[in-house]
């Protein structure tokens, strides 16, 4: 079943434009084959094309700007980061996926609102997973016809048990949580709440808008103000981030920003 969207009450099949920009011809050909194979097994009709330079990508007419872009960073002339910054001026909705052998640029990727960051070499399974997520993100942005979802206007909450007393805590009010002396301390917009529990269980309740930056800390991405490789500063206070968790934090925070931009565009 293919993806359609409605125009004047009629169904129209939507073609997703996917571009690969890499200065290595062999890389472009391999990616093209894998993406084409994946698209043929999906609900999407994909138009795939490739370019070898950032300048060539920037020279495309507006109607050829890709919906999804796999972009290398190390290229002659304009590198991937420079190219991405210029492309963002033309298209804020383009789903940008960096494909590179250099992991150190993952932090700069946030500045250009990258959707994902694939470090070479990567498994076919990982490419497929990222492409699936990108196609689903495109589907949301294109406002295609999809089954109605449950009303999510009501804020989500958890019940915190302290002795015989249960307290309702809105997730949107939690700035961060930490573990101290076998207790979980919830730092909320209305003060602190302490209870006995496990941070692992709390992680399962909070969902994608929260991220565990350290074995003893869980942050609400809504309240992140700035960060570096060791510390995340929030609306109130700061928390450490472990070296192991930092790349995952940056990736999930970028996805959080993307989700909220899409929600804003839908209003």
Which helices and strands occur, and which strands form pairs?
Layout: E1 4-7, E2 10-13, E3 15-21, H1 25-40, E4 45-51, H2 54-58, E5 68-71, H3 80-90, E6 95-100, H4 106-109, E7 116-119, H5 124-141, E8 157-162, E9 165-170, E10 174-180, E11 183-188, E12 191-196, H6 199-206, E13 210-214, E14 217-220, E15 224-227, E16 231-234, E17 238-240, H7 243-266
Q: Which labels suit this protein?
A:
single chain, five-stranded parallel β-sheet, five-stranded antiparallel β-sheet, 17 strands, 33% strand, disordered N terminus
Describe this structure in words.
The chain is an alpha/beta fold and 267 residues long. It is built from seven helices and 17 strands. The strands form five sheets. Strands 4-3-5-6-7 form a five-stranded parallel sheet. Strands 12-11-10-14-13 form a five-stranded antiparallel sheet, sandwiched between helices. The radius of gyration is 21 Å and the shape is elongated. Mean pLDDT is 83; it is low at 1-12 and 144-154.
The order of strands across the largest sheet is 4-3-5-6-7
- N-to-C CA distance: 28 Å
Helical proportion? Answer: 25-40%
- Quick one: overall form? elongated
Quick rundown:
The protein has helices at 25-40, 54-58, 80-90, 106-109, 124-141, 199-206, 243-266; strands spanning 4-7, 10-13, 15-21, 45-51, 68-71, 95-100, 116-119, 157-162, 165-170, 174-180, 183-188, 191-196, 210-214, 217-220, 224-227, 231-234, 238-240. The chain is an alpha/beta fold and 267 residues long.
